[in-house]
Design brief:
The complex is a heterodimer of chains A (173) and B (287). Chain A has helices at residues 2-21, 33-45, 47-62, 71-88, 97-119, 129-157, 166-172. By secondary structure, chain A is mostly helical. Chain B is an alpha+beta fold. Chain B has helices at 2-29, 33-68, 70-107; strands at 118-122, 135-138, 151-153, 158-165, 170-174, 181-186, 189-195, 201-206, 219-222, 235-244, 251-257, 266-270. In chain B, a hairpin with a 2-residue loop joins strand 6 (181-186) and strand 7 (189-195). Classes of the chains: A mainly alpha (173), B alpha+beta (287). The interface between A and B is large, with 51 and 51 residues.
């Protein structure tokens, strides 16, 4: 059941990304709903769920963006894992943890993605604008995290098997 | 005991993700067919959702742009008025030049070069993601005869090539993009030009010998050689500056693009199969 609900959540966020967020680009930068899904998935569901779900989120984004296929999957999967792991080491009851952690992780994810693009031959993205893009995406992620967190609490709610980590139990219970 | 097992399992998951990602990227760089098919299928499925989003978002984004870019738009408007005046003058001069040119062709018993079959396309707005510099999407695809590697032009000159063609849309790699490499002809010499990532320049660092007579203002066109994807004599731009390469083996030529690939609204796809010319006859023209 959790996989079905996670797939529905990803499809819904993909539709949001390609329809509204593709056009709504304040200051030239578009919010990244699928990155928010990867990060919140990690925070709510733990490192392993974050890694798998982040990979899936990146993969569906790779289907519609012109970059190298598989790069977003790798970066988002890694960041989902990292955010899940890091959230275990902080006080998960603090309401500031999820937005702050998501914002920071989104910044790091965008920098890694841009640098990886540069390594793979698209050097034009390795410039100061990358920092601006990362900063804007991290700010949008802080805003996006609240509805996305609600979504992933629903995704993981009825699951009897998946939430294995402390942070996941905290949210689910 | 459970914690180390869990930790080990997480590490395996992370390792598998790295491996899967690296494999997919490698397959993509190798142009692995099924990946392209899956991407095309996904874009086709999402196309109506994207178009719906464009219709919903355009009034809001229009208002936002109007509010935040008013000064920029006003300055652009003034600049465009100046450009129109300059073009009117050029039009009159080129009319005179063209009459002379046609008279010369008639005198020498030559025919006017045939035009290329063109397909008008609208540049779509709303790129997905934040790393789309160097590409635009257009609203025509394989249904209209568009194929990978076809040239894309405006009235001013070459703006890019088709990178990916879906049924109803296509992605254009812009000529200014750093990934763009093209064979060019300048002052009778053939060289290899590369995009610099800037909006209005290309750089030629290969093929133009140190003794070549290249001057500022010389026209730069496509070569149309056997290995070139593009038909010959498509205008690319003019020589802006010249110098020598770092190893002093070739001329380094900076080309100012004739067509500005920024803020494109409409473009034309040259409906010739990549590598074909009009002289190849009707079979060269893509259906």
């Amino acid at each position: 059941m959790i996989r079905f609900k996670a797939a529905i959540a990803l499809f819904g966020l993909l539709c949001l990304q390609v329809s509204i967020f593709a056009h709504f680009r304040p200051f030239g930068v578009s919010p990244d709903a699928l990155l928010a899904a990867a990060l919140v998935g990690g925070i709510v569901g733990g490192g392993e769920f974050g890694a798998r779900h982040g990979f899936a989120a990146g993969l569906v984004l790779d289907l519609v963006i012109p970059g190298p296929f598989g790069l977003a999957a790798g970066v988002y999967g890694t960041m989902g894992y990292g955010s899940g792991l890091f959230s275990r080491s902080v006080d998960s009851q603090d309401p500031r943890v999820v937005p702050v952690l998501s914002g920071l992780s989104a910044f790091v994810a965008m920098i890694i993605y841009g640098l990886a693009l540069g390594v793979l031959g698209s050097e034009q993205f390795v410039e100061w604008r990358l920092v601006w893009v990362a900063f804007a995406v991290s700010v949008y992620s802080v805003v996006l995290v609240f509805p996305v967190q609600a979504l992933y609490t629903w995704v993981l709610r009825d699951d009897k098997r998946a939430p294995r980590t402390e942070s996941a139990r905290t949210v689910v219970n | 005991m459970a914690a180390p097992q869990q930790s080990g399992r997480r590490r395996i998951t992370l390792g598998l993700i790295f491996l899967a990602s690296a494999t997919l990227i490698t397959l993509d760089f190798q142009d692995f067919g099924p990946l392209g098919t899956i991407q095309t299928g996904a874009r086709e499925v999402l196309a109506p959702i994207r178009e719906g989003g464009e219709r919903i978002a355009s009034p809001v984004t229009g208002l936002w742009d109007g509010a935040t870019n008013y000064d920029e738009l006003e300055a652009e408007n003034i600049e465009l008025r100046g450009e129109i005046d300059r073009l009117r003058g050029d039009l009159v001069r080129s009319g005179v030049d063209r009459a002379d040119y046609e008279a010369l062709l008639t005198l020498n018993g030559l025919e006017l070069p045939q035009g290329y079959p063109l397909l008008l396309a609208r540049v779509k707005t709303g790129e997905v993601g934040n790393f789309t510099a160097g590409v635009v999407e257009i609203d025509v695809g394989t249904r209209e005869g568009v194929e990978k590697d076809m040239a894309v032009v405006t009235a001013a000159g070459l703006v890019g090539r088709i990178e990916q063609a879906d049924r109803t849309s296509a992605t254009v790699r812009l000529v200014s993009s750093r990934d763009f490499v093209i064979g060019v002809e300048v002052a009778g010499e053939v060289g290899l030009a590369r995009g610099e990532g800037s909006s209005d320049e290309l750089v030629i660092e290969q093929g133009i010998g140190i003794r070549a007579q290249v001057s500022v203002g010389d026209p730069v066109t496509t070569t149309g050689s056997e290995r070139s994807l593009f038909p010959p004599n498509l205008v690319i731009g003019t020589v802006a500056r010249t110098g020598v390469t770092e190893d002093a083996s070739n001329r380094r030529v900076i080309v100012e693009l004739a067509a500005n690939p920024v803020d494109l609204r409409f473009v034309n796809v040259v409906l010739l199969e990549p590598g074909a010319t009009v002289e190849d006859g009707p079979e060269g023209i893509a259906r």
